[in-house]
Specification:
With 305 residues, the protein is α+β, with helices and mostly antiparallel strands. The chain has three domains: 133 residues, no CATH class; 33 residues; 133 residues, Nucleoside Triphosphate Pyrophosphohydrolase. Helix content is 26%, strand content 30%. The two termini are 14 Å apart.
Length: 305
């Protein structure tokens, strides 16, 4: 099964991101004045929605929203139509919704399943980019204010002796389905700190400086669960802009079935057979978040048994 080509939630957006246009200020300004241009309004990382879903603004209302937005960023082209996102976070929620002709704000993760996959991907893209702008008002090196440019895909330090460009940061994390050695087939799931008593999920962790993705898999499995793994194999990746993640999925095989949790990030870890996981599904429990890559990793593993 070629999992690398499969599109997960928040991937496969329908936009042409049109990178060369980002530095063409004349063209971007012209795009913004077109009546066909679409603006997606956001409020504090949340979509502004009406009875049909996230609102897409054009013409006069789009112009009104842009005039009140703290940031407007270029997302890309939908054919000949420019698509932008505008941040109304500085307004009270009710004021932002009324200005956008929306009823309320909703986390895009609550809309997955009701939106087309490409629409969810574009909303998540807008969320992640606007979140970065709110968090990167100043240069981290000299403390001077940073101003937006490049259609919203770069901020530049205004410090006279600094002036460095600042780009949206991505925080890669690995997520791993660990299989036990030998028969019967079992996978390792863990209960994380703060999780409900019977809530288990695959193991994950952030990639550290100077590490390959595979190195991060081996380190995290050892640190969190006391498990040494081999046969680390890439399964696929997922955009996770909540706020800036990139989830990279792997499978690995444990060298033994001994488990020793760290007691901090993980409170418990245990091996599950396919039959046990199917029983959990039959009882109404989900296999991880339905919009997350761990759900796909577990579904694929179950389908092989």
């Amino acid at each position: 099964m070629d999992t690398a080509e499969r599109v997960l939630a928040y991937g496969g957006g329908w936009l042409d991101r049109a990178g060369p246009l980002r530095t063409d200020e004349t063209r971007l300004t012209e795009l913004l004045t077109r009546s066909s241009t679409v603006v997606l309004p956001m409020w504090r990382d949340r979509c502004l929605v009406d009875g049909h879903g996230p609102v897409r603004l054009g013409a006069e209302r789009a112009s009104l929203v842009r005039s009140a937005a703290s940031d407007t960023v270029f997302l890309g082209m939908d054919g000949d139509v420019g698509v932008f996102a505008a941040d109304l976070s500085a307004l009270p929620e009710r004021s932002a919704a009324e200005m956008a002709g929306a009823a309320r704000s909703v986390d895009v993760r609550a809309l997955v399943g009701r939106l087309e996959p490409g629409d969810a991907a574009v909303q998540a893209y807008a969320r992640g980019l606007l979140h970065w702008h709110r968090q990167q008002r100043f240069c981290g090196a000299c403390g001077a204010p940073a101003v937006a440019g490049g259609g919203g895909h770069v901020r530049t330090c205004t410090g006279g002796e600094c002036g460095r460009p600042l780009f949206p940061r991505i925080e890669p994390a690995i997520i791993v389905l660990v299989e036990a050695p030998g028969a019967p087939g079992r996978c390792l799931l863990a209960r994380h700190a703060g999780a409900a008593e019977d809530a288990y999920s695959t193991l994950a962790g952030f990639v550290e400086v100077g590490e390959s993705l595979e190195d991060a898999v081996r380190r995290e499995m050892t640190e969190e669960a006391g498990v040494t793994v081999t046969d680390v194999t890439y399964q696929g990746s997922q955009a996770w802009p909540f706020p800036a993640g990139l989830m990279v999925g792997f499978r690995a095989t444990a060298t033994s079935d001994e488990v020793r949790v760290d007691g901090e990030e993980l409170l418990e870890a245990r091996w599950f057979t396919r039959a046990e996981l199917r029983d959990r599904v039959a009882s109404g429990r989900t296999l991880g978040r339905v919009d997350a890559i761990d759900h796909r990793l577990l579904e694929d593993w179950l389908a092989e048994g």
